[in-house]
Request: fold
Amino acid sequence: MSNVPVILDVYTPGTLFLAGVPFQCALGPAGIVLDKREGDGGSPVGAFPLRRVLYRPDRLEPPETLLPVYAISDRDGWCDDPTRPEYNQHIILPHVATHERLWRDDHIYDVIVEVGYNDNPPVSGKGSAIFMHVARAEYAPTQGCVALQLDDLLRVLRVCGPAAVLQINPPA
Reply:
């Protein structure tokens, strides 16, 4: 692990490069989009900081990384309701707004990397819950996130620190 600036370069149709090494990844079904909107299925173009890592302590040890690490529980969620002040923020359940549960029966949120997209401050309707997380079987599309196989995600996180950036590049 180091605190050297790391750029995670993402290209369509689904490749993440770390120091020239390619990793297959899943993106949203709409591909990479220039003007992200809530629910459009697109992965947003831009350079975004990695905020922290969330993980399921009942399934994994804390990931090795220089990013802040937080163990989630069945009370953790993410607000996706653009009408609420909590929009695109971590919330504790139960919650009155529409939200995504972070504690899932499948394994895609066993490790979540909170991506600094539309969060400083959140703009209503510009998209929420853009994460890096574990890919589904056969790299099925996400809802706009970047998803890698668990081993690849853990490998990438080992070299990420506070200066790491997820660079989602526009289609050629």
The chain has one domain: 7-168. The longest strand covers residues 46-55. The two ends are 33 Å apart (CA to CA). DSSP finds one helix and 14 strands in the chain.
